[in-house]
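yo, CsbD family protein is done. seq:
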Amino acid sequence: MGELKDKAKGLGNEAAGNLKQATAGDDAEQRAEGRAQENKGEAQQLKGKVKGAMGDSI
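structure:
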């Protein structure tokens, strides 16, 4: 079950990061925060995939 939670959190963070970047305009700091949040989401999704492949044993 942890696999699905990680994937869902990852999708949420990735979407929020993309939204921050899209609405940042000239605000470089907000664009950077958006990229960081998007990267976090991608990492969470990868974690979920690894858990799925290993049967949630990690």
